[in-house]
Design brief:
The complex is a heterodimer of chains A (about 700) and B (about 260).
Chain A (H helix, E strand, L loop, with lengths): L10 H17 L2 H35 L2 E6 L5 H13 L3 E5 H4 L2 H12 L10 H11 L5 E7 L7 E7 L4 H30 L17 H38 L3 H5 L5 H32 L20 H28 L3 H6 L1 H17 L6 H5 L3 H12 L4 H25 L2 H5 L4 H8 L1 H27 L1 H28 L3 H4 L7 H9 L1 H18 L4 H10 L7 H31 L2 H15 L6 H18 L3 H17 L14 H9 L18
Parallel strand pairs in A: 1-2, 1-3
Antiparallel strand pairs in A: 3-4
Helix pairs in contact in A: 1-10, 2-10, 3-7, 5-6, 8-10, 8-11, 8-13, 8-15, 10-11, 10-16, 11-15, 11-16, 13-15, 13-19, 19-20, 19-25, 19-26, 20-25, 22-28, 22-29, 23-27, 23-28, 25-26, 25-27, 25-28, 26-27, 27-28
Chain B lengths: L19 E12 L3 E13 L4 E5 L6 H8 L7 E6 L2 E2 L4 H6 L1 E5 L10 H11 L4 H14 L15 H13 L5 E5 L7 H17 L2 E5 L3 H7 L2 E6 L2 E6 L1 H8 L4 H14 L1
Parallel strand pairs in B: 3-8, 3-9, 6-7, 7-8
Antiparallel strand pairs in B: 1-2, 1-4, 4-5, 9-10
The chains are: A mainly alpha (about 700), B alpha/beta (about 260).
Chain lengths: ~700, ~260
């Protein structure tokens, strides 16, 4: 009788066996390893070196370049003209050329005349003046400085500096002229005051600035802003390759079935593969971050805000860097778990890559927030995945990390990672993976449509943050209108077209865009006061753990009383536009995909998350998410998009109107929800609308 | 590959109970939300140790589902299945220790060598140290893999990869071999190697349950044949028994008659 092998090894032994084999496979993919680990380690020093050289060359070039300034100070008094001329001459290197010598006396005379003439409100110069200056500067001069009578007080003289800001030398000339004139102004003021009162009374008000921050602390602050974002970026890039290869790649290669029939629990296999992903991610992280730190340490370059200390050191002390590495470790576990989960659910390498971009954005946004804002690490922010860890790294490098909060942050990150890993083990269920190989049934099982909708939702959030944020910082109202009426419809179209095509529906049908009954429409509108009342209550509750800063409250109130906007315009901007465009995207396009695979509860939960996140404010997260869930529920209930648009519009209109008429938010109006609900519950269903596949039956 | 049963192959532990026993095996798939598919409808199956049992049936008959349930990949909706006396539902890990599974779509890790592959799966089956090394070397010798055992599987020919796959499946000395269309995609020579290997298992006392579309393989190899159609076992027996029952001479005609009878019935 053949001797049967010993009983299976310990779980840890099996996990390590699986991890070792996975790492061996990964290590033998030389091209991927070189691009993920080795190449970046070489590129950072080159990048720093090249950037530093470019900066030095450009700065030195501009600062050392000779600039030619044409001056015509005939309209100024002799004393002023002499002081200005002397000050300009002291700005080396500069060549001061009198207008007569330059042959531009007629030009400066004409400029003087034009300066007295009428100009458009707010314009510094008219078109004729601009053209005249441009032609004059083409003669090889960088700036024309003219003394002209003050149009308001002709007895007084003012100086006009004509330059071309698109030209580097012209801009440098302006800098030097300003510097020279500032010295003249300071000297003149001091002399006048001393002459009048015997001294400069303001001299005592100029403080002597004493910065107690050491170079070490300053450098730590600068590094703490940049390093978390870099670390997350590298972690995602390095970990993604490992995760895709060990999970999705195994299924694609046909080896997963063989693995799942071995006498090893799926959980052990998942842990072993996950461990390999973590090791690879850590290797990529160490390589990249180490390269950056080494480049800084060897003076190959600096980050903005960093200066070398007296001993030439630029990096914070090694213990702080070590502490930041330890603080970041739970986040490494979480990110790798998310990457592994994404890859385990994918059927192929390529499919896993498709979800990588929105996942990466989701992970990078908190890192960007941590580095760019003055957010503090406290009990609340420490519990937020990614954000807490990035703030912890920042504080650790700065040397201001509180041990208690750091411990809580580590526990929270580990908790999140554990929660994700529980799902990871389930994804290696052989029955789920293997019994539907392709085809419609697997698509349904794998919830492809809802996952795609979620990916589109995350992309919409990223677009709102990045593009919408830039547009609105350029122009508040204009940017908001472009975001709502251009970006959102485009995103909606991109999201709903594949859903409609797959279902063989028109876009209108896929969006549930048809007229509701009058009863349904009225019922939806009547819910608005109750919704406003509930959200106010939620905002009050949220105040307890995330108080709304007064500046934020003032800003919000100010936005609703924008100067120059009529009440009708305000309603259009802050009620009609969001109602139509946001509903088209969220409850129209995104919900259309989600409802094909998911239960009503899950759809509402996802809609709440996406809607809340899209409004880009943690202070409004809970009430906004609640609104999103309600609107989603209404859409699902009525199987029509228009009631949600009407409710959204009425809700926003109440908020806008309440800035002028507080009674609109009277809690008693919330009772209107009762007849509203009655109209919605007792309504007949819209004619001709088939039940969406599986929405009510799915558990 | 050696044509005689290699003496160095680990012998399975003999068991007095049927090697495979399935009672009332049922499998229902849910397609989407409203539609269900009954892949198996109360299948009863029994295979003896050292027997080669072939499952024949058209596409969608339930062959793969049967094999996957017996190899613990899928869970039955109803019924029971035992492999070497172990209930696959109650103790799937123990059942897997007694099974060697191979399908036509089974792949190998392209960046691992044949030796590394065998070592890996040996470890997953609980072997280690000197015993594992001995088994791996025995497999390499038994399947004549010495020339390419240390080459990466991605660089091997189809026939070489097939030998590695077979070695992997029998490394731990399983009492039952479950093969799901093992000759799919293989050329004549490679298919011949597989057939020789299956035949060699009879002498070793291993029960082999395999599915195939190739009737000639079933005629040549099988001690008994089961004809599966629409999730039901229409008939099971030796070639002669089936021929007498249907009045047909050739297996193809036997198969058609049984399917027709099953459809009409």
């Amino acid at each position: 009788m053949a001797e049967r092998g010993p009983r299976p090894r310990t779980s840890l032994g099996l996990v390590l066996t699986v991890a070792a084999v996975e790492l061996r496979r990964l290590a033998r993919d030389h091209r991927a390893l070189v691009s993920a680990i080795l190449l970046p380690a070489l590129l950072y020093p080159l990048l720093f070196r090249a950037y530093g050289h470019l900066q030095a060359t450009t700065g030195a070039g501009t600062e050392a370049a000779m600039v030619r300034v044409v001056v015509d100070l005939r309209a100024a008094n002799g004393e002023l003209a002499s002081a200005v001329t002397a000050a300009l001459a002291a700005e080396v290197p500069i060549r001061v050329v009198p207008a007569g010598v330059a042959g531009l006396e007629s030009v400066t005379e004409r400029l003087r005349e034009l300066s007295q003439g009428p100009r458009e409100t707010g314009a510094e110069a008219g078109p004729a003046e601009r053209e005249l200056v441009a032609r004059a500067l083409d003669h090889g001069y960088d700036l024309i400085l003219c003394a002209v009578p003050d149009p308001v007080l002709p007895a007084r003289t003012v100086l006009r500096a004509h330059h071309d800001s698109s030209d580097d030398l012209s801009s440098e000339a302006l800098i030097r002229v300003r510097r020279a004139l500032a010295r003249v102004e300071a000297d003149h003021r001091t002399a006048t005051l001393v002459g009048a009162v015997g001294r400069d009374p303001a001299a005592a008000l100029v403080p002597a600035v004493v910065d107690v921050a050491s170079e070490d602390a300053s450098n730590g602050a600068a590094l703490g802003r940049a390093l978390p974002l870099l670390a997350v970026l590298v972690l995602v890039a390095g970990g993604a390759y490992g995760a895709l290869s060990t999970f999705a790649g195994e299924r694609e290669g046909g080896t997963l079935e063989t693995l799942l029939v071995q006498p090893v629990p799926a959980l052990i296999l998942a842990w072993g593969k996950y461990l390999a992903v973590v090791v690879l991610a850590l290797a990529a992280l160490a390589s990249n971050v180490g390269s950056v730190l080494a480049s800084l340490a060897f003076g190959l370059g600096t980050l903005p805000g960093m200066v070398a200390g007296a001993d030439g050191a630029i990096l914070p002390a090694a213990p702080r860097l070590c502490v930041s590495a330890v603080v970041f470790l739970p986040t490494v576990l979480l990110v790798c778990a998310l990457l592994a989960l994404n890859s385990a659910r994918a059927r192929s390498f390529r499919e896993g890559q498709q979800v990588l971009l929105p996942l990466s954005i989701l992970l990078l946004v908190p890192a960007g927030i941590a580095g760019g804002t003055g957010l503090e690490l406290d009990a609340l922010t420490a519990a937020v995945p990614m954000l807490g860890a990035c703030l912890g790294v920042r504080d650790a490098i700065r040397g201001s990390l509180a041990p208690g909060v750091a411990a809580w942050m580590a526990v929270a990150s580990c908790g999140w990672a554990w929660w994700v890993l529980r799902h990871l083990a389930r994804t290696l269920d052989a029955e789920r993976i293997l019994h539907h190989e392709g085809g419609e049934e697997e698509q349904a099982e794998r919830r492809v449509q809802s996952r795609t909708a979620l990916a589109h939702g995350l992309a919409a959030i990223a677009v709102t943050y990045l593009i919408g944020g830039c547009l609105q910082s350029w122009h508040a109202v204009g940017g908001l209108m472009i975001t709502l009426w251009v970006l959102f419809p485009v995103l909606a179209l991109l999201a709903v077209r594949p859903v409609a095509r797959r279902a063989g529906e028109s876009l209108r049908r896929a969006l549930w865009l048809h007229l509701p009954s009058a009863r349904t429409a009225l019922g939806a509108v009547l819910l608005a006061p109750a919704l406003a009342w509930l959200t106010q209550g939620l905002s009050s509750l949220q105040e307890h753990w995330a108080p709304l800063p007064s500046a934020f409250a003032r800003g919000g109130a100010a936005a609703l009383s924008l100067d120059g906007l009529s009440p009708a315009a305000l309603l259009f901007v802050f009620a009609v536009s969001p109602a139509v465009c946001e509903e088209l995207l969220f409850r129209g396009a995104l919900l259309s995909g989600m409802r094909r695979d998911l239960s009503a509860g899950r759809v509402m939960a996802l809609q709440a998350l996406l809607f809340g996140a899209a409004h880009a404010s943690i202070y409004r997260l809970v009430p906004t998410a609640f609104v999103g869930a309600c609107l989603a529920g209404l859409t699902l209930r009525t199987r029509c998009l228009v009631p949600a648009i009407l409710l959204h519009l009425a809700y926003d209109a109440l908020l806008v109107g309440s800035t002028r008429a507080e009674w609109l938010l009277d809690p008693r109006l919330a009772w209107l929800a009762l007849p509203g609900l009655a109209l919605l519950v007792l309504r007949g269903g819209p004619a001709g609308q088939a039940a969406p596949a599986g929405l009510t039956a799915h558990s | 590959m050696q044509s005689d049963p290699p003496a160095s192959l680990p012998e399975p532990t003999p068991t007095p109970v049927p090697a495979i026993r399935a009672r009332g095996l049922t499998k229902v798939y849910t397609r989407g939300r409203a539609e269900t598919v009954r892949a198996l409808r109360g299948l009863d199956l029994e295979c003896r140790p050292g027997e080669i049992y072939g499952l024949l049936g058209p596409n969608g008959a339930g062959k793969t589902t049967t094999l996957r349930i017996l190899s613990t990949i899928l869970r039955p909706t109803a019924g029971t299945a035992e492999v070497a006396g172990v209930d696959v539902g109650a103790d799937p890990l123990e059942a897997r220790r007694r099974i060697g599974f191979l399908s036509g779509t089974t792949g190998l890790y392209p960046r691992l060598t044949g030796r590394e592959t065998l070592t890996y799966f040996g470890r997953l089956n609980g072997f280690s140290g000197g015993e594992l090394e001995a088994r791996v070397e025995a497999m390499i010798a038994a399947f004549d893999m010495a020339a390419f055992a240390d080459r990466r599987c991605g660089a091997l020919s189809t026939g070489q990869r097939q030998r590695v796959s077979i070695a992997r499946a029998v490394l731990h000395g399983p009492e039952v071999l479950i093969l799901d269309e093992p000759t799919t995609g293989l050329d004549i020579l490679a298919a011949g190697t597989m057939i020789d290997f299956v035949e060699s298992r009879r002498e070793a006392g291993t029960c082999v349950l395999f599915s195939t579309h190739v009737l000639s393989e079933a005629e040549r190899l099988c001690d008994r044949i089961g004809v599966l159609f629409d999730g039901r076992l229409l008939a099971s027996g030796t070639y002669d028994e089936l021929a007498r029952a249907t009045g047909e001479r050739w297996l193809e005609d036997i198969f058609r008659t049984l399917v027709r009878t099953g459809t009409d019935g």
